[in-house]
Amino acid sequence: MHGRPAEDDRLTAIEQALWAAPPHELIEVATRLLERHAGAAGVDVLLIDYRQTHLVRAEAGEADDDVPVDNTAAGHAFAAQRTVRDGDATHLPMSVRGERLGVLTARFADGGPPWLEDLATVLARALKIADQGTDLYRRLRRRTRLTLAAEMQWDLLPPPSYAAAEFSFAGQLEPAYAVWGDNFDWSVSAERLTLTVSNGMGSGTDSAALTHLAISALRNARRSGAGIAEQAELGDQTLFARHRGEQHVATLLLEFDLGTGRVRVVDAGSPRIYRMRGGATDGIGFDAQMPLGMFGDTRYTTEEFTAEPGDRLVVVSDGVHGALSPSGVPFGRSALPQALRATRLQEPPEAVRTMIRRFVEYHEGDGPADDAVITCVDWTGRGTG
Predict the structure, then answer these.
(1) How far is residue 15 from each of residues 29, 34, 37, 116, measured CA to CA in Å?
(2) Domains in the chain, ordered, with CATH?
(3) What are the strands of the beta sheet with 54-57, ordered from one edge?
(4) What is the predicted pLDDT for the residue at 1?
(5) How much is the pTM?
(6) CA distance 276 to 193
(7) Which InterPro entries does the record cross-reference, listed alphabetically (predicted)?
(8) Nearest to 292 by CA among 234, 229, 228, 248
(9) What is the 3-state secondary structure (H, E, C) of 260-320?
(10) How confident is residue 63, by pLDDT bands cut at 50, 70 and 90?
């Protein structure tokens, strides 16, 4: 009883020091504070890499020092999003509103102070902000060099996962270090969630630049208050004005009403949506409309369906459902439905990570012929009480 105020004061002092740390010194400051004020015998800050297969040590210089997510204690803390104790090591997940940043590992002879989980949360928030002021953490997270096209795409992306009262979302690109034109974007307000999954034609920086222009046009329309049909029309006009119909971007636009679960849809290309409801999995089909940039004067129309509490919606680009195994079998024929069923009980971030791993393994060592995106929305909806 008498020790608690002192512990609270100590945590407050550590939090203040973290917020005051320069962005590029945050990890060093956190390590020093834990060793000095919590008696940690050692501290590691592990950041998830772009592919989400390894946790990268912030103080390490060699890829051999990275920690696999699969079959390790630290990886289990990351995947399960819960504290894991392994001998004298305590592994604490670091996340911000559902976005998984990595793991804080600290070693104690006595298990450590009771406020470690609170500290991991504060450190995650501080890292999220610090990432905007330095290249250090983006450099640490890459286990190999990103191509220029991939650099463009990752800079364009919103956070790859998010959790709210009404839904939980996650998305991932592959190949993470060499993606071209595939992309996803999302935005949430008090009334709605808007999600787009796009696939720019071509490869390399030309494809990345094409998608960048399309996403910027969609965002410009959305931030001006336009609905998804008007967003698609501005994207179409913008791309046509630049490329005269020679380059286009296939896009699926979804607008969720957070209060009712009604989903308005514009299907302007090849991304596909699968719904898991109860024990059933089925594709949801829409009237196909022209990809963005094809003609420049397309008038897009919306269709609707309703998401029910407990629904899982998975959107994939054609690089996923159309991918071929070395023997020529499409991934979407049976492997994708199997992956959807196998990950049904996982939270969206882990489900997407697992589906991407199965997608990579499907190529049996060969790299995917096309880039790919997988996004997942678990719909909770608003309670009526």
Answers:
(1) 11, 11, 12, 12
(2) 4-141 (3.30.450.40), 148-379 (3.60.40.10)
(3) 67-68, 54-57, 42-48, 99-107, 89-96, 84-86
(4) 37
(5) 0.94
(6) 19
(7) Bact_Sigma-Reg, PPM-type-like_dom_sf, PPM-type_phosphatase-like_dom
(8) 248
(9) CCEEEEEEECCCEEEEEECCEEEEECCCCCCCECCCCCCCCCCEEEECCCCCEEEEECHHH
(10) low
Amino acid found at 139: R
- Per-residue pLDDT tens digits for 9-59: 888 999 999 999 999 999 999 999 999 989 999 999 999 999 999 999 987
Q: How many helices (H) and strands (E) does the chain have?
A: 11, 17
Which of the four pLDDT bands, split at 50, 70 and 90, describes residue 60? Answer: low
Angstrom distance (rounded) from CA 73 to CA 104: 12
Helix axes 348-362, 73-80, angle to 10 degrees: 120
Over the stretch 215-245, which tens digit does the pLDDT of each residue have?
Answer: 999 999 999 999 999 999 999 999 999 999 9
